[in-house]
Amino acid sequence: MATFRDASPIIYTEDLPASLAFYRDRLGLPETYRFPDDGEAVFVGLNGVSLAAVTDGETGSHGLPIRPRAGRQFEMCVYTDDVDGAVGELRDAGVPVLVEPADQPWGERMAYVADPSGHPVMICATA
C-alpha cells in the first residue's frame, strides 16, 4: 500500500499576485517553489501549510456556508501569538475582517478575515 505525506491545499485564484501579497507577504508563509522560474508565475508553492477537512453543508464559524457548490471550497487556518494584534494589522492593511477576535469554548482565540479571492482565513491562537 502506498504511503502518502505532505498534503497541501491548492488555492484557485483569479489574482495570483494579490494572493501572494496576502499569504506570503502579509502572513509570512515562505515561498518554496515558483513556476516558471522566469517571468510571471502561474504556480507558487508556500511552506507552512497543513491540510484539514470539514463536513459539507455546515455553517462555518465565519457565518458562511461550507458548500463547494456555493463556491466556498476553501478555508485557511493560520496560527499566531496575538490574534487581536494580527487582525488589527490586517485591518489596517485593508484586509476585510469577517469575524472579530473572540475566545472559543475549545480554548482558542479566533477571528476571520478574507483573502483577496474572498476565502475565509481563520486567525487563531491557543489561549
User: Helix/strand-derived class?
Assistant: alpha+beta
| Strand composition percent | 25-35%
Order of helices and strands: HEEEHEEE
- The CATH class name reads Alpha Beta
Organism: Paractinoplanes rishiriensis
Keywords: Dioxygenase, Oxidoreductase
Pfam family, one: Glyoxalase
Protein name: Extradiol dioxygenase
Blueprint (SSEs and pairs):
Elements: H1 16-26, E1 31-35, E2 43-46, E3 76-79, H2 83-92, E4 97-103, E5 108-114, E6 120-126
Architecture overview:
The protein has helices at residues 16-26, 83-92, and strands spanning 31-35, 43-46, 76-79, 97-103, 108-114, 120-126. Strand 1 (31-35) and strand 2 (43-46) form a beta hairpin. The strands form 2 sheets. A 4-stranded mixed β-sheet has the order 3-6-5-4, covered by helices on one side. A two-stranded antiparallel ribbon has the order 1-2. The longest helix is centred in the N-terminal third of the chain and has 11 residues, at 16-26. The model has no long low-confidence stretch (mean pLDDT 83). The protein is an alpha+beta fold and 127 residues long. The chain contains 2 helices and 6 strands; from the N terminus they run H-E-E-E-H-E-E-E.
Features:
oxidoreductase, alpha+beta, 2,3-Dihydroxybiphenyl 1,2-Dioxygenase, domain 1, 127 residues, Glyas_Fos-R_dOase_dom, Glyas_Bleomycin-R_OHBP_Dase, four-stranded mixed beta sheet, Extradiol dioxygenase
